[in-house]
């Protein structure tokens, strides 16, 4: 079995809690210099930007800044900081519920991405925590959708990262979610939804397709108020948008969902319609200490606590996180 090459530590520090970009040069190709390869590999940047970054010594290899005429070396690593996008600040607190030598558990607000991705880089939970707690090595144990509020877990020590991440990958974490959606008199609950979900890169919405199920969710109705219901959701698997898609397929899409059943395009600074989904409880046996852990969110879903406002406007009700 071919072993992956060991990745050397980044020679550049984090900036605003964000790691530098790391690129590994391919094992071969027509390029004479590193510059030639980067121009081909990063067409959006353009040759002028690449040349300026090289002149300003902003592209760094294991031996220091890469010279403008540095030869192409197959398999070599280079690092650089990309220009951060203009981001709309998410004006809600990221509350730390637990912090010890191994774990940081937070109560994430709606609209805040968990980790840097796409147009959300510095305005993410990971970047905020690295800056505020001064833990540059902090890493996510799992992912929580940007629009979903509630519990997110981060690993303090790099040597423990895999142990905690495997908890989620191997489904050894019990998770509960709360949600608010329309009440459907004809829907028999509790029920278990199983389906095959596919999520294509570059397509915002996942979809259900024929084939063996790869997702499973238990849906329970906790309480009813007029035309709205408060639901308890227990995912047995962790597919992208699984709970949102399963609720929509049952005919009770979550309030405030801009993707299911119909994709809309809210403005980046529109924080008035939070997705009514909350990661409420996580339970697991700690793989490092062996102790049982249980964490509960302190957040509420605004469509339930401000029922009159949301009930009057149906799924289009307005509220902040």
Automatic annotation (TrEMBL):
<dbReference type="InterPro" id="IPR050188">
    <property type="entry name" value="RluA_PseudoU_synthase"/>
</dbReference>
<protein>
    <recommendedName>
        <fullName>RNA pseudouridylate synthase</fullName>
    </recommendedName>
</protein>
<dbReference type="InterPro" id="IPR006145">
    <property type="entry name" value="PsdUridine_synth_RsuA/RluA"/>
</dbReference>
<dbReference type="InterPro" id="IPR020103">
    <property type="entry name" value="PsdUridine_synth_cat_dom_sf"/>
</dbReference>
<feature type="region of interest" description="Disordered">
    <location>
        <begin position="1"/>
        <end position="22"/>
    </location>
</feature>
<feature type="domain" description="Pseudouridine synthase RsuA/RluA-like">
    <location>
        <begin position="102"/>
        <end position="249"/>
    </location>
</feature>
<dbReference type="Pfam" id="PF00849">
    <property type="entry name" value="PseudoU_synth_2"/>
</dbReference>
